[in-house]
Amino acid sequence: MATNSDETSFKDKTFRQYAPEQAQAYASNRHAYHDNLFKVILAHHQATGGTLGTLLDVGCGPGNSTRPLARHFANAYGIDPGAQMIDVARGISEEAVEKGEPETSSGKPIVFVEGTAEELEGPWRGDGRKVDLLTASTAAHWFDLPRFYASAAQVLNKGGTIAFWASARFYAHPSMPNAARLQEAMVRLELDVLGPYELPGNKMCREAYRTLPLPWTIDPPIEGFSEAGFTRHDWDEEGKLSDGEHFFLGDYTITLAQLQKSIGTASMVTRWKEAHPELVGTEEDVLVKAIKEFREIIGGEELTVGLDCYLLMLKRD
């Protein structure tokens, strides 16, 4: 699969143009990923020669995925092009420092920097430390990947790891009454109602990164990474529980109001709201209508849901 920089640039301005209240809502209503995922990443990283010196989380947003991993590293950084996202991330870190809560294994706070995945400019380049683990949580589909890989090759130590992961969608837990009907309604919301507001990056995420360009599939290939060092994991595809009982990322019993807030942080929803400001919060709001349908299906206010998960890991030669 040959690709070039133009074909792999799916930049989305939605998150980088967030207002302060939008960035705060994102931080509050997006769950941090389950420790199950971080255990797999750290185990693979260390088993393949990676060390726990420096973490760099790219497209970090408010730092929801940065913090659980930072506790294992002596130095931790987050970089994001959204100024408001970085402000929220810094604010949360300042609160942790004030409470005396260490964010890294060395006790240093996480450093959050406004910047892009394509340049990866920051203090990790000039202070004698190279990056050991580079992560991107639900973000790689917005990168200009040829440029990102070239920059990543410059900042990663040999034996260092890139870990990309994301989730395609929410799923109703199969133990729920009317789970199949609820799932059909969720998919209709995503594909039929919000589909017109999908960008190529959203589609790549929905397709579980199966078309995500990798360094050796780009024309010309990006040096520094080999296909032999590539690993992929998939959990709970199409909502079919990998262990037959629980979602890998955890089962969540939440209210419909909480589900509405969580779905409301999706970029496609933000773009729908921008296109229909007069309908936001009315009976014609797409989320108001969807939640009403969900309520009729489950006959109540609570539901148990989970997320699928896919993880791609690459090694620096």
Automatic annotation (TrEMBL):
Q: What is the lineage of its organism?
A: Eukaryota, Fungi, Dikarya, Ascomycota, Pezizomycotina
Q: Which GO terms describe its molecular function?
A: S-adenosylmethionine-dependent methyltransferase activity
Q: What is an example of a Pfam family matching this protein?
A: Methyltransf_11
Q: Which residues form the signal peptide?
A: none
This one is known as Methyltransferase type 11 domain-containing protein
Q: Which residues form the Methyltransferase type domain?
A: 56-164
- Show the SUPFAM superfamilies listed in the entry: S-adenosyl-L-methionine-dependent methyltransferases
